[in-house]
Amino acid sequence: MSRLSAIKPAYWISGVLLVAAVVVPLLVPTYAKKDPHLWGFPFFYWYQLLWVFLSAILVSISYKLVRAEERKRRAAQGLGDAEKEDGR
């Protein structure tokens, strides 16, 4: 069995979400224009600000997916819950 097949889908999904959060705002042709305006702001400004919030959402989804997968892995190995041990 290859190492790639051992990677869980949660990690793949997290990776794709994180790549989207970083790469899409860097694609200049997607936002290099003035129109349409939103509340008087050119497209460039509100599009970039929108990606700040979208990136925060995508990162939090990725965190929750990876955290759940790590909990499953620790439970399968009989290690218990790390949060309870740390007192969080």
UniProtKB/TrEMBL annotation:
<protein>
    <submittedName>
        <fullName>DUF3311 domain-containing protein</fullName>
    </submittedName>
</protein>
<feature type="transmembrane region" description="Helical">
    <location>
        <begin position="44"/>
        <end position="66"/>
    </location>
</feature>
<dbReference type="InterPro" id="IPR021741">
    <property type="entry name" value="DUF3311"/>
</dbReference>
<dbReference type="Pfam" id="PF11755">
    <property type="entry name" value="DUF3311"/>
</dbReference>
<keyword id="KW-0472">Membrane</keyword>
<keyword id="KW-0812">Transmembrane</keyword>
<keyword id="KW-1133">Transmembrane helix</keyword>
<feature type="transmembrane region" description="Helical">
    <location>
        <begin position="12"/>
        <end position="32"/>
    </location>
</feature>
